[in-house]
Amino acid sequence: MSKIPTGFEAHLFSPIRHVRLTVPSNCSKAGALLFVGSVQFGTFLMLAEAVSPGYSLQLNYISDLGSTFPASAPIFNSSIVLFGALVLGSAYYLQRAFGWLPLSGLIAFSGIGLLGVGLFPEGSSFALHDLFSFLTFLFSGLAAVVAARFQRAPLSCFSVILGSTTLAAMILYVPGTGSFGTMIGIGVGGLERMIVYPVLLWSIGFSGHLIGMEDRAST
Description:
Helices cover 68% and strands 0% of the residues. By secondary structure, it is mainly alpha-helical. It has one domain. Helix 2 (26-50) runs antiparallel to helix 3 (73-98), helix 5 crosses helix 8 (187-211) and helix 6 (155-173) packs antiparallel against helix 8 (187-211). The radius of gyration is 22 Å and the shape is globular. The termini are far apart.
């Protein structure tokens, strides 16, 4: 049996001895929660659409997946409730990281809206579903805009564009409950996706940015 050269073993294992376990920053925790929430919702949204025969991306509302189509209802509602809970957790760590309430507050209200959308499906009493949907759309769009403060160009520009797209589509959507979407040929479902998809994409991009950041506020 050959003998290991002198010093070789120490050289081989020296990197292992110098590995240090670091505690993730609050930014990293916030980003991880937001990333998991966004990606799982996007994935299960597509799955819910796939298991709903007759569902139309153009003619149906997104929330129809949580009420009108029984096969997709548990998938959609549980996914969006989980999304809301993870967004609330992300807001908590963002406040600890930056100490700036406008951003963490907007994201927290977005999380509350998501929870409400899942807990009170379409057709719930007192129009609670519509109320929570409105809160989600409004506060997530605003959050994307103000989050530009913590990003460098060009990501900060993309953040403003995506948030503004959501808010603009929301303005077109609310007065006629999606009639503008029908007018331009994308239907109520298409116009609603012009509200949802930009901020969903923003949340994925912003979460990746956060994961690589260090905290700026004392905790």
